Fold this sequence. Notes:
Layout: E1 16-20, E2 29-33, E3 37-43, E4 50-57, E5 62-68, E6 77-82, E7 86-93, E8 98-106, E9 120-123, E10 129-133, E11 139-146, E12 152-154, E13 158-159, E14 165-173, E15 181-188, H1 190-193, H2 199-203, E16 206-214, E17 219-227, E18 232-237, E19 248-252, E20 255-259, E21 267-270, E22 273-274, E23 287-294, E24 299-305, E25 309-318, E26 321-332, E27 336-341, E28 346-351, E29 356-361, E30 372-374, E31 386-387, E32 395-401, E33 407-413, E34 422-427, E35 434-438, E36 456-462, E37 471-476
Parallel strand pairs: 22-31
Antiparallel strand pairs: 1-2, 2-3, 3-4, 5-6, 6-7, 7-8, 9-10, 10-11, 11-12, 11-13, 14-15, 15-16, 16-17, 18-19, 19-20, 20-21, 23-24, 24-25, 25-26, 26-30, 27-28, 28-29, 29-32, 33-34, 34-35, 36-37
Amino acid sequence: MYLYNLTLQRATGITHAIHGNFSGTKTQELLISRGKSLELLRPDANTGKVHTLLAIEIFGVIRSLMPVRLTGGTKDYIVVGSDSGRIVILEYHPAKNQFEKVHQETFGKSGCRRIVPGQYLAIDPKGRAIMIGAIEKQKLVYILNRDELIRLTISSPLEAHKSNTLVTHMVGVDNGFNNPMFACLEIDYEEADSDPTGEAAQKTQQILSFYELDVGLNHVVRTYSEPLEEHTNFLISVPGDKDGPSGVLICSENYLTYKNLGDQPDIRCPIPRRRNDLDDPERGMIFVCSATHKTKSMFFFLAQTEQGDIFKITLEVQKEIVTEIKLKYFDTVPVASAMCVMKTGFLFVASEFGNHYLYQIAHLGDDDDEPEFSSAIPLEEGDTFFFAPRPLRNLVLIDEMESLSPILACQVADLANEDTPQLYALCGRGPRSSLRVLRHGLEVTEMAVSELPGNPNAVWTVKRRIDEIPMIHSKAG
Length: 477
């Protein structure tokens, strides 16, 4: 039995966005999740327009999405965490133009449950292992390898569970070809749960933990744990091995901190704020999303605050020790749920509210007169840097993808007297709000225009031969 499914109009909001070489060529594609569907996009390097290669419904909720590439490989696979209680690895076949399930491993019950993994995904940068985690307690690690036919294989799950622990984020740490390592932001609520006064909950600190996968012994060990001073919302993995110093950037409230194991001291830098900001000065500032760009000779991060300001972050390294964090105001774009920097020089911004944008990175911001903020500049505790936002200078808008998200109100009425009601929707937020009119039906594309010698009063089709496509003829009055 085959069931036919037809979605008249897919969701326009984007929850996740990743990029990689999914087709196996040197061309990079974007893979976006719209909550319950996957869509593969390819920006045209010549025109800058974004084209949809494939869009499929998955009949579930996509909770996390990450690309993974095996060591020495030229193609990226797609790891999907969903509400199915399974980890799914997909491969894109350009010839068939479809996704194929390489692996589908069941580990728990279906549904978005806080104790069933799927909410968080972390990939070892060398493509050797995957950690999939739940909001509470459970974390599983899968080892990736190849068989004799060079096909991707996956191991049985290795448990890294910890009771009475909430997880807020996790990333894979780039430590070269040493044992794979993962960094997790955790909260131990055991004391707070048993204290009816609530004092323990106020004193509970977030914990940064490192989990190491011992490949030889085939088990996962929690090797390091440290409480954090500020509330932290997410981590950024720093390139390692020959590309960088490794470690993680901790994005906390009002501060950005670099941390690594070994002899590396913590480097801390305040997050700059807008000068003469109308917002509450006592309100903390956080980064909400980031994108990493890495080449053979350099790397940098683009991190966006909750006001939409993007900062370019670089690290000063001396003998594999990070000595300084540098931040520089880059540009201001709509607040994004995900950003992707592509090797072709495009920046894709999946907006939280309103339309999504594709920008061309015209300048890297190295030669302008913007001040550069540094962790080496002495400041009093609680003080920060200030900058002045401006129109776009380093980015050039290339393409725009329509989005109705979020729809705040909607009315059905035939205000245009078209005999068919229209949908009038209030969309967006703040200065990017819009009133949009939605009509039923398909757009008509004009293929050709031909001038007629007179005033026609009839049109019909005629075939020259029985096997020919009909031609349109008209009768002039």
